[in-house]
Every structure is written in C-alpha cells, then in structure tokens.
Amino acid sequence: MKKLLVVCVAMLMGVNSASAEWWEDIDRGVFNHVGMNASIGTEGIGVGVAAPITDYLELGFGVNFMPGLKVKGDVNVDFDVPYGLIPPGIQTSDKVKITGNFARTTMDVKLNVYPFGDRSSFFVAGGFSFGGEKIAKITGHSDLVENIIKEYPGMKDNFSAELDKYDVKFDDNGSITGDIRVNKFRPYVGLGFGRLVPQHRVSCRFEMGCQFMGKMKVYQNGNKLDISDDNKTDDDLSKVIDKLTFYPVLKLTITGRIF
After folding, report:
1. Contact between residue 227 and residue 163 where contact means Cβ atoms under 8 Å apart
2. Mean pLDDT, residues 223-237
3. How far is the C-alpha of 113 from the C-alpha of 249, rounded, in Å?
4. 68, 99, 158, 212: which has the fewest C-beta neighbours closer than 10 Å?
5. Residue 181: pLDDT band by 50, 70, 90 thresholds?
6. Do residues 139 and 172 lie in contact, with contact meaning Cβ atoms separated by under 8 Å?
7. What are the backbone angles phi and psi of residue 18, rounded to the nearest 5°?
8. How far, in Å, CA of 196 to CA of 180, rounded?
9. How far apart are the first and last CA of the chain?
10. Is the pLDDT at 196 greater than 80, yes or no?
11. CB 152 within 8 A of CB 170
C-alpha cells in the first residue's frame, strides 16, 4: 500500500512538472467535453467516462473489477457435545483453515468539486458505489470433522467453526461454504489531484478516499448467521470481518480527453 502511494505521488508530480501549460485556460462548459480513463488501485482495475460542469465541477461514472484477493484464518472448531455423550476416542479440539476469497465488481458515480476552479487541479469528491452484496466466498475443510460425521452421522449439527462472532456450520463432508456480505449502496468521499477531463489530451490523476460499506455479515445457504458473543477469535479473516466497516480507496488514473 505504501509503495503504491509513493508511486502515485511521484508520477503525479512528474506529470505536473512536465506540463508547463497546466494552468492554461480551457473552455469547460456544461458537458461540452468528454473524457475517458483507466485506473488501478485498491478497488481493482477500473474504466470510466466523465464530463465537466464548468471549471468547478466534474461528473464521472466508472466500473471497477477486483480480482480474487484471499485472506485466510485458522479458526477454532466448536464441539457442542455434552461430555457424557462424546464417543470414546474422539478428539474434542481442532482448528480449521477458512479462506475468504474477496472478488467483486462495482460501479460508481462521483461528483468532483474543484474549489479553486481552473487555478488548481485539487478536488474533493463525493458520491456512491454500488454492486452485489456478496464481496467474498468462504471455504474450508476439516478432515477430523469429516471422519466423525461419517462414523456418527447424527453428530453433524454439533460442530461449527468460530469465524469472528459467527458459528459457521459444516456440511456432510466436513466442508464449510458461505459468503460475506455488505451493503449494496456504499457512500463515498475522497480527495486528490488531477482531472478526469484534463487540460491536455492525456494526463495523470491521484485519488484517495473511503467507501462506507457497513458491517460485514456472514451468510450460509442464503441465511444470515446469528452472532455468538462467546466466540474469541484472533485470526486474520475474523479481524477483517470484525473491524472493516469502510473500504480504503487509493487510485492512480490515466485520463484522456476525447474532445
């Protein structure tokens, strides 16, 4: 993340220093120009279009494609079986590795405000992103649970994995499947330097901000799981689910003006 920030700032400074005509006037009216852009950053790979609304405002539409980003956690297996009913020789403690595969496609609408007009490329952005609720698939498998269920089928519902504050159930094969969901509508605020409809034909733009997506929730078979306050987890995946209520945005964009 730090390396991406350094590269973005360095490239933006290079573009500014190389363009002696950066502050020249451009006839920005209401939707009288169109720009296209391609970006890379924490939202993934993005493409978009934009148009100015005078020198002070700019409206942009974009689509972002996030490839699969995997976060793993070794979580405890809860053996919810009364002591006297545990068959002899059965191990009653175990951990299972659960993988969260984060991949999503989002669309966004943003209004960029340039408070200094054509005298500066500094902007403040506001808008929203929207997409599907599911942002990650979760999978896992326990050989121990699989073997116990095969030998004692009636005990299947007595096992669960403690992922954050959720008790995630195993299937008949000792496997875990589910998904992580957030709000479909995600407000956004940000700031940066550069224009989506640049002074020259091609330019560079840097942006950072926050996408407010709400509390992450774990689902299985289309149903939200109940929260258990008794769970004590400290794995990486559980920390992401528990702590991350907003998504940080860091983006480097190559912009071009069509006309």
Report:
1. no
2. 83
3. 18
4. 68
5. very high
6. no
7. -80, -15
8. 33
9. 34
10. yes
11. no
pTM (whole model) above 0.90:
no
What residue type is assigned to position 234 of the chain?
A: D
Instruction: Identify any residues that bridge with 127 across adjacent strands, giving them in sequence order.
Output: 110, 188
Question: Which of 144, 141, 155, 145 minimizes the C-alpha distance to 87?
Answer: 155
**Quick one: average pLDDT of 133-147?**
91
Please write down the HEC assignment for all residues of the chain: CHHHHHHHHHHHHHHHHHCCCCCCCCCCCECCCCEEEEEEECCEEEEEEEEEECCCEEEEEEEEEEEEEEEEEEEEEEECCCHHHCCCCCCCCCEEEEEEEEEEEEEEEEEEECCCHHHCCEEEEEEEEEECCEEEEEEEECHHHHHHHHHCHHHHHHEEEEECCEEEECCCCCEEEEEEECCCEEEEEEEEECCCCCCCCEEEEEEEEEEECCCCEEEECCEECCECCCCCCCCHHHHHHHHCCEEEEEEEEEEEECC
Paired strand residues for 210 = 189, 248
Cα distance between residue 204 and residue 190, in whole Å: 17
- Encode pLDDT of 31-78 as tens digits: 999 999 999 999 999 999 999 999 999 999 999 998 888 999 999 888
